Amino acid sequence: MIYTVNLPPETEKKLGELVRLQMAILEYAASTTTPEQQELIRYLEQNEYEAVHAQRIVHALCRTSGDRETSVRWEYLLTFASNMDGEEYLIGNVPVGLALQAEKQRIVESMKADMNLLFDPAPNGGFTFFMPEIPNQLPDYLTVTKAYLQAKLDAGSRQDCKFPQWLCALREFLISYYELLGTNIPGGYFIDNEKHNRQHVLNAYTNANPEQYVCAICDEHSFRTIYGAHQLSDLEHYFPKSIYPHLACHPYNLLPICGSCNQIHSNKDSLWDKTSRQRRILNDIFLPYRPGSINANTIMRPPDNDAEDQVISFHVVHLSIEAEIQKKIRVLQEIYRIPDRWQEKNDEIGDHLWRRIRQFLADDLLMVDTINSPEFLQRRLHRLLAYLSEDRGKDPLTFPTLWRLTQMLIDEVDPVTDGSVALDQSAVFQEIIHWITTDQQRVAQLDAIAKELRDKATEVKWRGRATDSQANL
User: Which residues make Cβ contacts (< 8 Å) with residue 460, sequence separation at least 6?
Assistant: First the structure.
C-alpha cells in the first residue's frame, strides 16, 4: 500500500454483521446432512448476533426469484450439508459420513478463525483455510479434499470447479453474497433491517477518505469515476475470493482501487511465496485499512540516470522496521508491480516534474533575475516540495514525483547553493536559464494564448445570458 486509508465504520458494521452471519449459517449446515429452515431459525436464535432477527434472516436466505422454486443460496447450503463427494478416500474405522462431516466442520471452524483474525486491530499469524487448485498447497487437515482434487487433476478434469461438489457449493454460497452486493443485500440479513449494496460501500469510503483521489495501492490513477449519482470503481478483493471465499464480503478485504491494479493483481495470492513455496503470515504484507504504508514509512530513491541498472529503491525511515517493510514492499511488487510500474513511467514522471517546476517558477523567472541567485531557486523549490507533500493522495504519481524533486534538490541544487559546484556545471540551472530566455521571448505569445481562451469563454457566457433574456420576454 502506498497510502493508509480509513475503513468507514458503517461498512465495518454492516459487512461485519454479514460475514459473522455467514459463519453461523455454515456452522448449522455443517452439523447436519438434512438442513431444515425451522431448525436453522432455532439455531440462529441461540446466537448473540442473530437472535433478534433469526426469522428475517432465514426468510431472506430462502426467498426465491423468477421461476425458481427454491433459493439458490439455500440450494448451495443443502448441497454443502448433504453431498458426500470424496468419501471413497476416507480410511479408518470412523463411519464415512461422520468423518466427512468432521472435515466440513473443521473447514467452517477455520473460516471463522480467519474472519475473526482479520477483524483484529493488529492481526498476526496466517489464515488457516484457503483453496488453491493445487493439492500440496491446501491445508493439511483437508484429507478428503486433497485426495479428491489430486484425482481430478490426474484424470485431466475439465470441470470449472475440481473440488468436491460440497466444497464447490460452499464457495458459491459465500461468493454469492458479494455478487448480491452489486444490487442489494436484503435488509432481512441485518439487525437494522436496512439493505446494503456496492454504492453504500463506495460512498462510505469516499466520505471516510475525503482527500484521497487516487488509488491507494499504485498512486497512478483515480480509483473511481463519478457517473450521475453513482460512483464506479473496482472493489478489490485483497485476498482473492476464489482462494479465500469466506473473505469475499469481509470489510477488511474490500478496497476501492483503480482498474489497472485490479487487472494486474488478478488471482495472485499475496500469502503464497512462490520462491520458498511456503505460506506467508499477515505480518509479511501490507494490509488495507491498517497503519503502516510506503508513504508513512519510507523515502524513495529515484533511478539514477547515470547508472546502468536504473531501479527505484526505498529506504525505511526507522531502521528497527527496515526488514519488515522491505519484505512487504517485495510482496507489493510481486502482486501489483509497484514500483516497477513507476520505473516504466520514469520519463513521464520526469517530464511532469519539469513542467510543474516551470509553471511554478514562471512569474518569478520573468520578474526576478534568478540566474545569479541559486539561493532564490532553492527556496522556491523547497516551497514546491511542500506543496507536493500536501498533494499526496490527491494528484496521480505525486509520491514518486515528490521524491524525484527531493533528490534533485539534494544532488543538483544544494551543491550549487553551497558553492561546491559551479553554476555553469549544473544541468538543472542550465535548463532553467534556457527557460528564462525562452519565456522572456514568448511573453506576448503566452499572453495572447491566455487572452484567446478567456475571450472564447466570455463570448459563450454572454451568448448564454442573451438567450436567457430572450426566453424571459
Answer: none
> What is the amino acid identity at position 291?
P
Q: Which residues contact 141 (CB under 8 A, 6 or more apart)?
A: 103, 106, 110
**Cell matching residue 353:** 516534474
Domain boundaries, the chain: 9-273, 292-344, 346-441
C-alpha to C-alpha distance for 330 and 285, rounded to whole angstroms: 9
Alpha helices in 120-258 (DSSP H): 143-154, 165-181, 198-208
**Structure letter (DSSP) for residue 8:** P
The answer to whether 311 and 343 have CB atoms below 8 angstroms apart is yes
* 133's grid cell: 487448485
CB within 8 Å of 376: residues ≥ 6 apart:
364, 368, 370
If residue 98 lies in a helix (H) or strand (E), which one and from where to where?
Answer: helix 96-119
Task: Return d(Cα 196, Cα 185) in angstroms, integer.
Answer: 5
Place of cell 433491517: 193
pLDDT digits (tens, 9 = 90+) for 345-354: 999 999 999 9
* pTM for the full predicted model: 0.90
Is residue 376 over pLDDT 90? no
Task: Tell me the pLDDT tens digit for each residue of 390-401.
Answer: 999 999 999 999
Task: Judge whether 7 and 207 are in contact, CB under 8 Å.
Answer: no
Residue type, 449: I
- Take residue 326 and report the three cell numbers written for it: 522491505
Q: Does residue 18 contact residue 24 with C-beta atoms inside 8 Å?
A: no
Q: Which of 220, 247, 15, 10 is nearest to 112 (CA)?
A: 247
- The CA distances from residue 13 to 19, 55, 201, 249, in Å, are 10, 20, 11, 12
Instruction: Tell me how far apart the terminal alpha carbons of the chain are, to the nearest angstrom.
Output: 59
Q: What is the distance between the alpha carbons of residues 368 and 192, in angstroms, rounded to a whole number?
A: 65
Cell numbers 463570448: residue: 459
What cell does 315 get?
A: 529506504
Cell readout for 109 is 471452524
Dihedral over Cα of 271, 273, 277, 282: its sign: negative
What is the per-residue pLDDT across 191-226, written as a single tens digit (0 to 9) for each? 999 999 999 999 999 999 999 999 999 999 999 998
The pair phi, psi for residue 288, each rounded to 5°, is: -60, 145
